[in-house]
Amino acid sequence: MMGEEAAPTGPPNRELYALLNLSPEASDEEIRKAYRQWAQVYHPDKIQSPQMKEVATENFQRICEAYEILSDETKRLIYDLYGMEGLTSGLELGPRLSKPDEIKEELERIKRRNEEAKKMAHFQPTGSILFNLSVPDFLGGDGIMRGMVMASQVQSQLSKDDAIAIGGNLAANEKSGGGIATAILRRQISPVSSIEFVASTGLQSLIGMQTTRQLTIHSTATINISKSLSDGSINLTNTWTRQLSETSSGNIELALGMRSAITVGWKKRDENVSAAGEFKIESGALGASARYTRKLSSKSHGRIVGRIGRYVLLTILSNLMYDVQEDRNHFLSCLYMCGAIIVLILLWIYFFNLFSNALEIEVGGGRKISEFSTVRMMYTIGIKGIFWKLELHRGSQKLIVPILLSSHLAPAFATGAFIVPTSLYFLLKKFVVKPYLRKREKQKALENMEKTWGQVGEARAKAEKAQQLLQTVATRKRNRQVETDGLIVTKALYGDPKAIERRDEGGVEGVDSGVIDVTVPMNFLVSDSGQLKLHEGVKKSGIMGFCDPCPGQPKQLYVAYTYHSQTFEVTVGDYEELSIPQEGQ
C-alpha cells in the first residue's frame, strides 16, 4: 500500500489526539486508557536520572493537559472547533454552551471584547499630508508648489465606553492659509447605541452632537445636528444604513441647512473586489461618484474612479477595466485597451463639458511593498486638467501628491501621459523589480532554512529523549511479540518521501536528512494482541517520540515489520490511517 500526500496540510485541532494516539471519535474509556498507558511511562516519580526526570516532567505535563481537555465534554467540543485558541481566549464554560453555534457565538463575543481591550490600551493616531504640485506653474516660473493640506487626529480610549479624539487641519495655498482644531467625545450608551459631542474652532467654528443607533441586525440610523458659531446657522443630517447582503450595504442621507441635499450610496466589499457609488441631489445641482477596485494578486490591485457634477450621472467603464485586468499579462493588449479607454474618456469629456462643471476619471493601481505600506499611482483626466497622483499609505498615515501636468486636454498629451508611465512600470517590473524580489526571496529562503534547521534540531533532540523513556517498555513489548511470533516493527521512518525512498543508500539520520527513525515508538504502540493502529486525520508528527523533520513539506511514514515470520512493508501519508497487520497477512 502506497500513500501519497497532496499537500502539507490537514485537519486542524488534532495535536492532542496525536499525542495520546487517539481517534478524534475516541470514547471516554479509550481516552482514560490511553492516558494511563502514557502516564505510566512518563510519570516523573519513575525516573531516576535527574536529566531524564526533567524530560519526563515536561512530557507528563503535556499528557495531563491533553487528558484534562479531551476528558471534559465542553472543553473537547471547543478544542475540536477552535483548537487551543478557543480554550485560551476566555470562553465562559457552562451548561448554556452545549451546541457548536452557541460556542461559536460566545467565542466571537470574547474576540470582540479582547479587540476592544487592545484598542483601549493604545492611542490611535491617524494623519495625512497632501502636496499639490503644478508642472505648468513650474515651467512658467511661478514655483511648483500650489498648496498643501495637513490633517492629523489622535484617538484614545478613556474607559470601556468612553473615547476622545483630538485633531486638526492646516491648509495653505499661494495666497492664504488657515486651520481647524476639532475635539470629539464619544460615549457608548448601550451595545446598540452611542453619542458623540463635537466642537471645532478656526475657519469653521461649530458645536454639534451626533447619535447612532442600531435599529435592527441589518440597519442603523444616525442623526447629526450642528450649529455654526460664525453665522449661527443650524444643520441637521439624518443617515440610514442597511446591510443588503453579506458583502454590500446601502445608505440614504438627508441634510437640511445652508446646503440641503439628499444622498444615496452603495458599497460592496469582498475578498477580491471593492466598489462604491454615490448619487447626490442638492440645491441647483446634481453629482455622482463611483469607485471600483479589484485585487490583481496578493500584493497588487487596480482601481478606477469617476466623479461628475451637475446634471449627468457617470457610468464607469468597469467592463473595459475588467478586460484589461484579465489580460494584464499581455503587454501589447494592455496598452491597446488603455489607449482605447483614453480616447473614450477624451470624447466623453468634450461632450459632457457642455453640460457639467465637474467631470473627472481616475485610472491606476497600487502595490503592497511591505506588511504595513502600500504605494499607489493614479492617472486623472477631467475638466480641471490632466494629473498624476502618487500615494503612500503606511498604517493609518497617508502621503498624497497630486501633480497637475496640463490644464488643457490635448489628446496626444493625454494619451502620452498615460502610456509613458504605464510602459515604464512594465519595463521596471520585468527587468528591475522582479529580479530584485527573486534575489531577496532566495536570500530569505536560505535564512529561513538555517532557522528551520535549528528548530528541527531541537525538536529531534526532544523526540529522541522521549524515545529513550519509551525504550524499556517498547523492548519488553517487542520481546513478547517475538515469543508469540506476532507483530514486530523492524524499521520505521517518518519524514520526506524522497529521503525515505533513498533509505537503502544511508544518510537518513542527520538533522538535514528530512527523516527521523521512529522504530521505538512504533513498537511501543503495538497492543498486547499484536495490533498497531494510527488513526486517520491525525498528523503523525504529534505522536510521542515523533517530530516534524521537514516543516512545510509533505511527509510519509514507512514501516517494515514481521508477522508470523513473514516480512512486510507499508507506506502511508501523514494523515492516512495505518493498521497492521493487514487482513489476510
UniProtKB/TrEMBL annotation:
Residues annotated as transmembrane: 334-352, 399-428
Key words, A-Z: Chaperone, Membrane, Transmembrane, Transmembrane helix
Compartment(s): Membrane
GO CC, any one term: membrane
CDD domains, alphabetized: DnaJ
One Pfam family named in its UniProt record: DnaJ
Domain J span(s) in chain numbering: 15-83
Main location (coarse class): membrane
Protein name: DnaJ domain
Organism of provenance: Arabidopsis thaliana x Arabidopsis arenosa
Lineage, broadest ranks: Eukaryota, Viridiplantae, Streptophyta, Embryophyta, Tracheophyta
